[in-house]
TrEMBL record, chains A, B:
Protein family (similarity comment): Belongs to the SLC41A transporter family.
Keyword terms of this UniProt record: CBS domain, Magnesium, Membrane, Transmembrane, Transmembrane helix, Transport
Protein name: Magnesium transporter
Domain CBS: 197-255
Subcellular location: Membrane
GO cellular component labels: membrane
GO-annotated molecular function: monoatomic cation transmembrane transporter activity
InterPro entries linked to this entry: CBS_dom (IPR000644), CBS_dom_sf (IPR046342), Mg_transptr_MgtE_intracell_dom (IPR006668), MgtE_N_sf (IPR038076), SLC41_membr_dom (IPR006667), SLC41_membr_dom_sf (IPR036739)
SUPFAM superfamilies to which the protein is assigned, alphabetical: CBS-domain pair, MgtE membrane domain-like, MgtE N-terminal domain-like
PROSITE patterns, sorted: CBS
Record's keyword annotation contains Flavoprotein: no
Organism in which the protein naturally occurs: Psychrosphaera haliotis
Length: 441, 441
């Protein structure tokens, strides 16, 4: 892929005659999505018209949401419309969902009646629910058909990807059940579908959250599941590739939030990127000022014993790391559902024990180094005590904060680490400087 | 699932008569793995003997590596042996890989000859390569067979999960090609497999890294791919569920490392957990002391102008967040392969521009607040300047550090944030206190 980037770069810089490098001839839609994301905006727009004989809506849908938004909003309307014209509604929706509703509506109007109908159905569901993105490209068999007729139909049909099951419906498109490929092979030609279809099967309710649907599909070890509406109608299917992308998006968003950044395009516009990150920086500034105020309370002792100013980052940062370790584990436990009211107290006991061991061990080392450095035994004792207290508090809050956020239906991965750092900074400075002001002056 | 935990807890606490709650009757292996991970060690061992009519090796293989290690090493050898006896080699290897080699060897000796052979083949590959975990449960067809004979064979065969393709081999088990289900349906009964099999198909080389194989499988939109050795032999298959688990492990490890913790079991033993986390705490302490030394250099000015001690955490933490934002984006770009020599300078330009905008904006605000708080214009100018410098340096190093680590073949997600924090702390304190000592005294 790297060679393609290099070849493309040379061609773009050449400027006289542009053509795509031959390596891109057998590029899939996902390959194109990957390549476009690695280019800066102007280059993306430059090569877009050269994407031919390829489902460009799938390319857009395959891009990260933010990169997709950048590209779609900078392409001429005509190009976007051309891309959307012949695509499956589920992918059209993915593309249009990044646009403002009024703009999206204009594009929808120009689509085929069938696609418009699919889109109308999809819009009954939120962008967090399976129904919105259900893939309509499904091979269904009618319950009154015979095995023989299906087998003969299959001779001329191109099965969609990930078809390991044939979905059975009635004339009103009500979902009846399924026949696995295995079962179809072992059936007799004259058998009726209605008689051999399994009716008690895993289905995905159209209003199920995407992440839950992904977990369900994974645990069933099937390649796809039928998406069924409240009234029992077959809306479409949800396949293992969809699940894989949901998981990837979920984890990438978590990682982005832990890094205090939105899940942004590598080459998002500078102004937009600066504005988005300013939110995180502003929150951080607020918490930093809170820590400053705590230090300010004890400015007399700091002025008198300047070693306190030298050492105070150690107390705060060791608490920060201890808390972050517990927080990370707790957030994962909440996300997998493995941590709940039944075992949170067991986790508390364990984490506090771990923090106590490390607190005592490291505070001893810090006390010794401090003793040699500043030749002040009282200071050694104060920093050791402050470290132990802060690390214990950190472990406790590393559990309490995410558990509380989770109960308040706030994503712990989003806000947890900022709140925790505030706690460990404030407690660290307060205990360390507070003890110093009591003992040293 | 939560109800199962509650029911189980009540039963465990009852202690008189133990039986599994009825909800677990239709538990899959993955459900059991999930449940066991959510229990503390003693409970895991308590309920293990009650797992009946279930592939317990698959349960173990489905658990997180660390939890698996804890459980396997605390179960009696007899239980482990019983679990492994009738399982597929790929899952036996997953379980034994967490044990010391000498212990693993003892278990291997007692397995069936066929499994031992499979294991011997697998051990030719490292625990990072597909060959080691190739699933041997594959339905293959011989190239000299006719379509008719396959169809009749399929009547009585249970196809493995995720079979969307029939793999074709010759008598020596050399991989020849594949027939999709679609192609099999449209073939004539008397066609020979050799004539209709596609020979130019996607395969996974057995020595391919697991993550690359997962990406390949995803991009092909197939449910599984054949795993082929250097000599062309069919070793087994790699399916989309394997890929999904590889991705999950990959992301969970990244998240754990960003939280400065190993990817540990929720209920790992306290001593082990404390030891593992001590490594991260020790590294952090080292960097915290480096920051302290920098502050120590300027202890005179800090003693004279105590406002410096009050404000210095702001400079360090705003730099830290700015750097972490750039670092997060850079690490993702490197992981997806989208960031390389061709576009790293474009990213540098963008990130520095973003940092400059936010640096100027926030330093202005901080200068104003500082001015009102300490009524010292020189101090306002110093902190504003230090903030801008530190945020620019942070953005630059947010790219340089992971790119350099990546070139040195060190995982940037593992060490990147620690090194970056060290840089932003030291630069922040040095610039802020250094400028203060030049200007204020």
């Amino acid at each position: 892929m790297n060679q393609v980037q290099t070849a493309l770069k040379a061609l773009i810089e050449d400027e006289t005659s542009f053509a795509l490098p031959p390596e891109t001839n057998d590029f899939s839609e996902d390959d194109w999505a990957w390549l476009l994301e690695s280019l800066v905006s102007e280059q993306r727009i430059l090569i877009w018209p050269f994407l031919k004989n390829i489902d460009t809506t799938a390319v857009l849908a395959g891009m990260r949401e933010d990169a997709r938004l950048q590209l779609v909003s900078s392409l001429p309307n005509k190009s976007v419309h051309k891309a959307l014209a012949n695509s499956d509604a589920s992918q059209v929706i993915e593309v249009l969902d990044v646009l403002p509703t009024s703009v999206a509506k204009k594009f929808i109007k120009k689509l085929s009646k069938e696609t418009q109908n699919h889109i109308r159905e999809s819009l009954n569901y939120t962008d967090d629910q399976v129904g919105r993105y259900a893939n309509h490209n499904v091979f269904t068999v009618n319950k009154s058909a015979s095995v023989e007729s299906i087998l003969s139909e299959l001779k001329s049909v191109d099965l969609p990807e990930y078809t390991d099951t044939f979905l059975v419906t009635d004339e009103q498109n009500i979902f009846i059940g399924e026949i696995t490929i295995n079962e179809l092979f072992s059936a007799e030609p004259q058998d009726l579908v209605a008689n051999i279809a399994k009716t008690s099967v895993h289905i995905v309710n159209a209003d199920l959250p995407l992440l839950d649907a992904s977990n369900l599909l994974k645990s069933t070890k099937k390649s796809m599941l039928p998406v069924v509406t409240e009234t029992g109608e077959l809306l479409g299917r949800f396949d293992i590739n969809d699940a894989l992308e949901i998981f990837q998006e979920h984890y990438e968003a978590q990682i982005a939030h832990l890094g205090q950044v939105s899940d942004e395009d590598l080459f998002a516009p500078v102004a937009l990127s600066a504005r988005r990150r300013a939110v995180w920086l502003g929150i951080n500034l607020l918490t930093a000022f809170m820590a400053s105020i705590v230090i300010g309370i004890f400015d007399k002792v700091v002025a008198e014993v300047v070693a306190l100013a030298v050492l105070m980052p150690i107390v705060a940062s060791m608490g920060g790391i201890t808390g972050s370790q517990t927080l990370t584990l707790t957030i994962r436990g909440l996300a997998t559902g493995q941590l709940g009211i039944n075992n949170v107290s067991s986790l508390k006991r364990k984490e506090i024990a771990v923090a106590a061991i490390n607190g005592v061990a490291w505070s001893l080392l810090v006390a010794i180094i401090t003793g040699f450095w500043f030749e002040n035994i009282a200071l050694s004792i104060i920093i050791a005590g402050a470290l132990i207290v802060n690390m214990l508090v950190a472990a406790l809050f590393g559990i309490l904060i995410p558990v509380t956020l989770d109960r308040m239906k706030i994503d712990p991965a989003l806000a947890g680490s900022v709140i925790l750092t505030t706690v460990t900074d404030i407690v660290g400075f307060f205990v360390f400087l507070g003890a110093a002001s009591l003992i040293l002056i």
